[in-house]
UniProtKB/TrEMBL annotation, chain A:
It is a multi-pass membrane protein. It is found in: Cell membrane. GO terms for biological process: amino acid transport. Coiled coil: none annotated. Keywords: Amino-acid transport, Cell membrane, Membrane, Transmembrane, Transmembrane helix, Transport. One of its GO terms (molecular function) is transmembrane transporter activity. The chain crosses the membrane at residues 49-71, 78-95, 101-127, 139-162, 195-212, 241-262, 319-337. It comes from Halobaculum saliterrae. This is Branched-chain amino acid ABC transporter permease.
């Protein structure tokens, strides 16, 4: 049914031409040409890398503690501003590419550290006292934290003479030239930024995977996600594991924010909080609440669907507003066909 | 705390006083273990433990002692508070009144992980496997010091060779018997001085029950155990002493040598 709706909307939006099927065939041939396909796939993977970074913390926290952290997007936004601040301070006009990348590394470390500390504080001070309450309490609490953080960010940003709702352009200006350019080979051109994002996303996935599978804490996280009471009866301080994971999750959100601050289609701004929270939720729910593997696969699916649809809407339908809707269509279809998500155990709301 | 169950039985007037025959009373006194004056301080001592689930008053003043090296069976019908007693010891369901002492130290008010770290292991009723983790990981998570993990795995696989073949399998994919073996193995490798074992034979095929009983007997040779078990012959076989719970209090206690699975003394508390 949804495919029918999509086709109908495609047909109604397509410009009047000789014949829609013919146009479609032309577009399909172009879409399937190696250069377009590689371009779309790389774009999709780059997008997936961002999604995975935005969603990783959310899924780790939900998987272990069953807490849906609505403040996650705001923490990403704070990371973007904080990392942006480091970049703006550290990078001068004359700073070379390597220097700018080094500054980015420092910004990531600062944002990760500061957000991890903030996340740890939020867990200990606010979330811990209400673990035993129904999930609604945690949702309301973290939603409240979002309102407070966003408002604080708005006040601070205004105080320093910046527009809270528009992207902080100075940060975009600290990007090294190499990331703003496209790298070309064999007819395929990829933007340096996309490659950088892919690199960062892969590093995050590998890092989190190694943490979960190779470290003792990772073992506790996986065990605690299944049965935290049993884990505590085995002598593990589950509260400390909760704090560490919450801090790690918010730290990754902060690092993701720094990466977004260099991307002109995101950028550091207060609305970034909501802009990142929605896709993060989509990815986490499609993948299955609390499974990191599901989050990675879902991020790839959403990224690739989005980049494909963006191409189609630009080249065939000639209307650029709709691709984002497709992301939510993925969510709706998942909820209908597989409510527990791709790899999830519990259904949404059933935790 | 006295090892005499008399006051408890009398205080709970609703517990079949009519059935308290002179014979069983005599059994009780003769069946008691050595009095506390004759023994060292108990390893675990509960006194006046009162535990609630919400408004539901489950334990209404439980007194019991477990001495180092012995296996104590905790018996009683379903719903009398056996599992709650174990949960109260571990502070999973902390008592509102009373005292739980381990090696003389008060456990009430401590976190569960602190209690467990003192050497108390739990082999829970419903096994509580980490189903998404492998057999090996389930064992590893129970070992306090990661350096001891290999030795712990070897101990687990020696005790239950079935598990060795399935070490890479997810615990959730094991049979009920294998899961129980893994649950016991997890308790054995945890460097525990006192094991709280809850219904280890429940729902298992007779052949598996034998393996489980063998493992428990083996474990009992160097570990103290508080064992909740409905399977009376198994309980009497493994345990040195017993307590019977009814309506949240101890109504009988004694040496397992002094009673039999067929005898009236235990039957009247255990049959529905």
């Amino acid at each position: 049914m949804s495919a029918g709706v999509a086709l109908a909307s495609l047909a109604s939006l397509a410009p009047a031409g000789p014949s829609i099927p013919l146009q479609f065939a032309d577009a399909l041939i172009e879409f399937l040409s190696p250069t377009t396909l590689v371009d779309v796939i790389l774009r999709g993977i780059a997008e997936a890398s961002l999604y995975v970074m935005i969603a990783a913390g959310l899924t780790l926290v939900f998987g272990l503690m069953g807490v849906l952290n609505f403040a996650h997007g705001s923490l990403t936004m704070l990371g973007a501003y904080l990392g942006g601040l480091v970049l703006v301070v550290a990078v001068a006009q004359s700073t070379g590419g390597v220097g700018r990348l080094l500054a980015f590394g420092v910004a990531v470390v600062v944002a990760f550290g500061a957000l991890a500390a903030l996340g740890g504080g939020i867990e200990v001070g606010l979330v811990r006292p209400i673990y035993d309450r129904p999930p609604l309490y945690q949702i309301l609490l973290t939603f409240g934290v979002t309102l407070v953080l966003d408002e604080l960010a708005r006040i601070v940003v205004l105080f320093y003479g910046l527009q809270p709702t528009t992207v902080w352009q100075d940060v975009l200006g600290t990007k090294p030239v190499v990331l703003a350019e496209s790298v070309g080979a064999a007819g395929v051109s990829v933007s340096g930024l996309e490659l950088f994002q892919i690199l960062f996303g892969v590093a995050t996935v590998v890092g989190v995977h190694l943490f979960l599978t190779r470290t003792r804490y990772g073992l506790y996280v996986r065990a605690g996600g299944e049965d935290s009471e049993m884990l505590s009866a085995l002598g593990v301080d589950v509260n400390r594991v909760f704090t560490v994971v919450f801090a790690l999750g918010t730290g990754i959100a902060g690092a993701a924010g720094v990466l977004l601050a260099w991307d002109p289609s995101w950028g550091a701004s207060v609305p970034l909080a909501a802009e990142t929270l929605l896709p993060a939720f989509v990815v986490v729910i499609v993948g299955g609440l609390g499974t990191f593997r599901g989050t990675v696969v879902a991020a790839l699916i959403v990224g690739l669907v989005d980049s494909s649809m963006t191409w189609w809407f630009q080249n065939f339908v000639d209307f650029t507003g709709l691709p984002e809707m497709v992301v939510f269509l993925v969510l709706v279809i998942t909820l209908i066909v597989k409510p527990q998500g791709l790899y999830g155990v519990s259904e949404v709301g059933g935790h | 705390m006295s090892s005499d169950a008399g006051p408890d039985s009398n205080s709970d007037a609703s517990v079949d006083p009519s059935q308290d025959t002179g014979e069983s009373a005599a059994d009780q006194s003769s069946g008691d273990g050595p009095s506390s004056e004759e023994r060292d301080e108990p390893l675990l001592s509960l006194s006046g433990v009162e535990t609630y689930y919400g408004d539901s008053h489950v334990l209404e003043g439980v007194d019991l002692d477990v001495y180092e090296g012995e296996v104590v069976a905790l018996m009683g019908r379903n719903g009398v508070g056996k599992t709650t007693t174990l949960r109260s010891v571990l502070q999973l369901t902390p008592p509102r009144e009373g005292s739980v002492r381990y090696r003389g130290e008060e456990l009430v008010g401590r976190d569960t992980h602190e209690v467990a770290a003192r050497g108390l292991g739990w082999i829970p009723e419903d096994r509580r496997m980490f189903g998404q983790l492998t057999v090996e990981e389930n064992v590893r998570v129970a070992v306090p010091d990661a350096d001891d993990a290999d030795a712990a795995l070897e101990l687990a696989f020696e005790t239950f060779p079935d598990l060795r073949e399935r070490r890479e399998a997810k615990a959730g994919d094991l049979s009920g018997g294998q899961q129980q073996m893994l649950s016991i193995a997890r308790g054995l490798v945890g460097d525990n001085d006192l094991l709280l074992v809850d219904e280890p034979s429940e729902g298992l095929a007779p052949l598996i029950v034998e393996a489980v009983a063998e493992a428990l007997t083996e474990a009992a040779s160097d570990t103290t155990m508080l064992l909740v078990e409905q399977n009376l012959p198994l309980a009497l076989d493994v345990a040195d002493r017993f307590y019977v719970l009814d309506h949240g209090t101890v109504v009988d206690e004694g040496d397992t040598d002094a009673v039999s699975a067929e005898g009236e003394r235990l039957r009247r508390y255990l049959s529905a």
